[in-house]
Write a structure and sequence with these properties.
The protein is of the alpha/beta class and 391 residues long. Helix 3 crosses helix 12, helix 4 packs parallel to helix 5 and helix 6 runs parallel beside helix 7. Helix content is 42%, strand content 21%. It is globular. The chain binds benzoic acid (BEZ). Benzoic acid binds next to loops. The site of benzoic acid has 12 residues, from loops.
Amino acid sequence: MTTKRKFIATIVAAGLASAFATPAALAQSGKIKVGLMIPATGTFAALGTAIENGFKLHVAEQGGRLAGREIEYVKVDDESDPSKATDNVNKLIKRDNVDVIVGTVHSGVAMAMAKAAKDSGTLLIIPNAGADTITGPMCAPNIFRSSFSNWQSAYAMGEVVAKQGKKTAVTITWKYAAGDEMVAAFKEGFEKTGGKVVKTLSLPFPNVEFQALLTEIASTKPDAVFTFFAGAGAVKFVNDYAGAGLKKAIPLYGPGFLTDGTLEAQGENAQGLLTTLHYADGLNTPRDNAFRAAYNKAYKIQPDVYAVQGYDAAQLLGIGLKAVNGDMSKKDALYAAMKAARIDSPRGAFTLSRANNPVQDIYLRQVVGKENKVQNVAVKALADPARGCKM
Ligand code: BEZ
């Protein structure tokens, strides 16, 4: 064959090969569409921004690609509103045809997303919402979490408060899945270790009219108060608790959402508060220091737990994609690689449980100035019990 003929034959062969290539093979060269469903408005808006920042930071560190595939974002503001959640997630799945959904913050919204992900078989990575149900009865091979379960973050605090010699506690939270589950988990840890929850108080999400409930706490006079609030609600609660003169009278405890990303606005009112969480300031590991420097350089602020969870959601997706050379049609291999992943997180390395939820150290932290300073590891390698998960 002449050189010219050889050249033409090669072109024809290449053309035929691409004409008969499987969709999967073709897909590997296209962009991966990430549907980011997070709050951009409302009580949890700042949490959504930190998650997005963290996710995008990891992708940027990989040159804007995961496993060689460019990442494209489609965003939906879920407003932390469960009544709009099904419509919102279906926009991403059915209208935008995303390859993976990343979201969200609010447990009630996340439960609707998990149902849609299960029904459609779309990969879902949850970078915050702790709803126990999602990695319990609703668990599924295509649903992963890079954050925590509500049980994990509050159970540890129950043990800590009881070990501090507190005998009675009042709980106060928003009345929705996250609040209910965190209070139940705190009660489990506290009562197993010798304490007694004497009163449970709540108000609807996202209400912040705390005065009547604070008066009830003052008259009940427990040894301790356990609370779950986050974002703008946490700022208002910590400030109102101190304003009502309760801070000096009855120690306040909670999962670290109470003081993460909020210290600027809580100032003096938060000083000394003890919280438990899977991230802390002052870990001073090379991994965390590098992450914090990179985050600070990119966004000119210090990262919080939400930023870490977003960053790790991207790491988890990257590990899965790498195992299948970017071919998302190889679902079994993709999910198997994600399940077996060891995530080199700024919080400390973690693995996933059989329900695809992080198995991780829970730190005891104390507010000192603008930091949630690590005190010690309250519970080592804590795994959510994954009650009801049949996977
Ligand atoms: C939740 O709804 O699961 C949640 C929201 C904010 C912080 C932590 C948990």
